Structure to design on (297 residues):
């Protein structure tokens, strides 16, 4: 790749897959004004004229304009339009600050571009049953290649592509940059709603940013009664599910110390034959004269 200086007026930005974050642009602009442009943008030549198309570096381009610069340091890449799309997608996917919504958008677009570059992975078929059967073969092929390239798990890629398809396009644009774009679990809940209800939720998120639960938003939109407060046991079980094995062991040790007899009975009643044998072997040495054969399995 050749690294050259190109006037900003000769670089066409076009439609970007990722919206520009004004706060990040402001930060980059201040850095560029102080130290200059450290990282080149990526461009490709358009025809035989003096125009270039931006591949990667939308935030840097906006920051250069914000800083009052007239030229950009750019790496000129030889690539077709489809190859340039793939480069833009991959350059964004390797960034850690991507939200779950951004990642879903880029991975879904990468799937489309991947099919263009590798048409053998996509077959014809007009019936829905044919399309469903072909998707089962398409996703694994796409996912394995993408996972190897980007270091993402196959499951992560498949879930992201499916998530992108569940949320309608105008809703994705509306919620981009909101708290909802950063919550994978809430996005999955949103994706299960009808398109019309998705749009209502999206507008609610913009108007009431402090309400950060899609289920609660739907309840308020549809004017449904509040669910009953969870019982103490339900609260504890919810907390228990979030604990790691070490934390669970600490909880069990504490609870057993408070009610040792109840803990022993519960452990014995719920134990498998193998676990009962383990309990016997553990307790037998603690009771002189206690025989294993006296304990019924």
């Amino acid at each position: 790749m050749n690294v050259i200086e190109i006037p900003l007026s000769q670089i066409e930005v076009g439609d970007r897959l990722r919206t520009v974050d004004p706060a990040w642009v402001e930060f980059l602009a201040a850095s560029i004004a102080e130290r200059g442009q450290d990282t080149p943008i990526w461009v490709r030549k358009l025809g035989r004229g003096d125009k270039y198309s931006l591949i990667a570096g939308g935030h840097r381009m906006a920051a250069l304009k914000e800083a009052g610069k007239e030229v950009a340091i750019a790496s000129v890449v030889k690539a077709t339009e489809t190859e340039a799309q793939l480069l833009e997608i991959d350059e964004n996917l390797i960034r850690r600050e991507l939200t779950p919504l951004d990642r879903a958008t880029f991975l879904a677009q990468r799937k489309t571009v991947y099919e263009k570059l590798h048409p053998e992975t996509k077959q014809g078929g007009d019936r829905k049953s044919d399309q469903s059967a072909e998707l089962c073969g398409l996703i694994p092929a796409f996912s394995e290649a993408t996972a190897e390239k980007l270091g993402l798990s196959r499951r992560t890629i498949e879930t992201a592509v499916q998530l992108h398809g569940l949320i309608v396009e105008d809703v994705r644009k509306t919620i981009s940059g909101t708290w909802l774009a950063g919550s994978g679990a809430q996005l999955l809940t949103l994706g299960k709603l009808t398109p019309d209800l998705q749009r209502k939720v999206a507008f609610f998120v913009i108007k009431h940013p402090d309400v950060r639960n899609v289920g609660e938003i739907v309840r308020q939109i549809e004017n449904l009664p509040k669910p009953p407060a969870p019982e103490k046991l339900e609260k504890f079980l919810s907390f228990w599910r979030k604990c790691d094995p070490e934390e669970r062991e600490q909880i069990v040790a504490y609870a057993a110390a408070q009610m040792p007899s109840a803990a022993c009975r519960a452990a014995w009643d719920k134990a498998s034959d193998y676990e009962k044998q383990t309990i016997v072997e553990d307790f037998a040495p603690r009771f002189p004269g206690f025989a294993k054969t006296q304990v019924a399995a």
Summary: The first strand starts at residue 2 and ends at 7. Strands lie at 2-7, 11-12, 41-45, 52-56, 71-76. The longest helix spans residues 128-150. The chain has three domains: 2-78, 91-221, 259-294.
